[in-house]
Amino acid sequence: MVFIVCLAALLAVAKASNFGFNIAQNRPTGSSSVFVNGVPAITASSNLAVDGNFNSDFFAGSCFSSDVPANDPNPFWFVDLGSRRYVSGLTLTNRGDCCADRLSGLTIEVFEFNPTTSTETPEFCSMVIGGVALGQTVSLSCSPTVTGRFVRIRKPAATDPLTICEVTVSGGNINYNFNKQPTINVARNRPVRATSQFSFAQTSLIASPGLAVDGNFDSQFITGRSCYSSAIGDTTPTLYIDLGAYFFINSVTVTNRGDCCAERLRNINISTLLKDPYRYLEYPKLCGTITGNVAGGANFTVNCFAPSVGRYIKIQKTSQVDSNDLLTLCEVQVTGRFASYTEVTDKTFDNDVARALVENGIIPADGSLFEGNRDRRAVSKRDEAPTMA
Q1: Handedness of CA 357, 361, 365, 366 (dihedral sign)
Q2: How far is it, in rounded angstroms, from Cα 116 to Cα 111?
Q3: Could you tell me if 180 and 26 are in contact, meaning their C-beta atoms sit under 8 angstroms apart?
Q4: In CATH terms, is domain 2-172 a member of 2.60.120.260?
Q5: What is the pLDDT of residues 67-93, one digit of tens each?
Q6: Which CATH class is domain 192-344?
């Protein structure tokens, strides 16, 4: 009875924390090895970690364990969520009859493709350093929320087996009101990164990336102090904006510098990305281009060739006339609407990862490394995809 009450409380906390519902229960699993012990033998197979049974007594037969380190020094376990999902967090239930310290030194990652064959860089979710008591369930949050199909738990350089009695994965459909058409700029005050930033020591001016989304449209570079600029010597200057959520993006508007150098707003590609470009290989979707002839201080709107789903905006100068031909943006505005769960997870909107892997020679063009027909279709139809950046 106590166990049932505690479990109900745990699920209530998960729901209250907006973690969503368990999307891992009874899903297909895999592991680097399986521990077999005893007479009669107990096979601690990978599926036992998602069977919905939270019994933490290993010998009750509902806990997963990898083999001993001599046979498996880098154990891992993974679950296939069946399709690309939002993953906001997870819980791990530790073994309760002994060996509590085994639930330590863990890294939790999320993959697009089967981690046993994929060479992609996974998205980091969380870690377990140690300190989980016997039978205790620990809650972990992915911050920020990540997306993928496979959740992997690995224990590198292990000195004892990876043992988990139950895993729940929180996520699924984040309740965005995707029918609402935002009328405000969804890029304002969002996190921004750039390949470089310009500094002018004589005036103590630093033209940092955040100035491009601060809501200040002053186009006077020196006196206004509200324009971003790349640094001299950056041959492919690029600015990235993290919108913080998935949007169906329609257009991007940029404000040109007004006091001089209007011609710098040229040879620019504006693209969208689903994932953090500093952590994940992805082929960007081209929204549109700026070729030049934008008046000083003027706004220029790029309407996307085809509206696309993305979280990150990439603005890149593709060529320079000379070393002073910098990427200079006094303000960037992004318009669109929240993307629906279907739009984010649908491979017709998201074949950029597959194309990137194929075109970089990481996977074969026939998609033989993908799991499931859905992923194979994403690769086999790569030539039918819209023009990419």
Answers
A1: negative
A2: 10
A3: no
A4: yes
A5: 999 999 999 999 999 877 778 889 999
A6: mainly beta
